[in-house]
Design a protein that fits this description.
heterodimer, A: 135 residues, mainly beta, B: 138 residues, five-stranded antiparallel sheet
Chain lengths: 135, 138
């Protein structure tokens, strides 16, 4: 939580992931953000792929750079059957960031799908939260 | 003799914390439910927490807010998954709230557009949006 003069606001970058491809994205950070302090990711593949005994496995990699590639804090695998998305027994936790976006700077990166068989296209949502001035 | 069982005078004071529940009845798969006729409790200064609970165990899957505003402030962006402000019974009731909320209450209009993800086991179901309201301690 920021000071009494700031409030937390969130935005989402949606990326449609084509199976087997490197899916690039570029997003201009809204100028009102004075700090980015959290990141969260979800994808809809974990539940559209149904039940069964399939073992969770890596289906893609995500890499995200901030402030025109001067900072590269997010490099993660994307896991199929990620039950943190589907289960309600735990509260969602945000990854802590400490980035000060400069005005007009971009968040950019890519999602490299590994092209595993039986995995079609899906949508990844990249959530960011940060502080904006309270007005 | 004075009756010792006489009740003390009632002093009406507002509690420091209160909770406001907004039930959203979702009629069918992929239904869109709009609610904009509710105001926050006028007796409380601030909304400082939000959580969503469900009457159905799988209704949260891909369900989103297309709008969540308190007063003139956007709280969640379009497409924000309700999962991100939900937690089950295994989480302590006080820990289930999204606590990075700090909005003026005082009768502010609440405007919610909820989009069902089409994954509930039974329709209709009810999504309950809880607002935690606070007054500063004096």
């Amino acid at each position: 939580m920021g000071s009494e003069f700031t409030r937390t606001k969130r935005f989402i970058i949606r990326v449609t992931v084509i199976s087997g491809e490197i899916n690039k994205f570029r997003y201009k950070v809204p100028a009102e953000y004075i700090k980015l302090n959290g990141f969260l990711m979800s994808h809809n593949h974990s539940w559209v792929s149904g039940g069964g005994t399939q073992v969770p496995s890596q289906i893609a990699n995500v890499s995200i750079s901030l402030n025109n590639k001067s900072s590269n804090p997010i490099n993660f695998p994307i896991i199929d059957k990620d039950d943190s998305v589907t289960r309600l027994d735990r509260k969602v936790k945000w990854l802590t960031l400490d980035e000060t976006p400069l005005k007009g700077e971009y968040i950019e990166g890519f999602i490299e799908d590994l092209g595993l068989p039986g995995i079609g296209d899906y949508v990844v949502k990249l959530y960011f939260k940060g502080l904006v001035e309270y007005n | 003799m004075e009756n010792s069982l006489e009740r003390p005078p009632v002093i009406k004071t507002l509690r420091h914390v209160n909770y406001q529940i907004i039930p959203l009845v979702i009629a069918g798969a992929n239904a869109v439910k709009e609610e904009s006729s509710i105001n926050t409790n006028v007796n409380y200064d601030e909304v400082d927490g939000i959580q969503v609970t469900y009457s159905d165990p799988t209704a949260h899957l891909n369900s989103t807010f297309n709008q969540f505003r308190i007063g003139d402030k956007d709280i969640y962006p379009k497409g924000y998954e309700t999962r991100n402000c939900s937690a089950g019974l295994e989480t302590g009731v006080n820990d289930r709230y999204d606590e990075e909320i700090k909005e003026t209450a005082k009768g502010s209009t609440i405007s919610i557009i909820y989009v069902d993800g089409g994954n509930a086991t039974v329709y209709p179901y009810t999504a309950y949006v809880y607002l935690r309201l606070k007054n500063p301690l004096k």
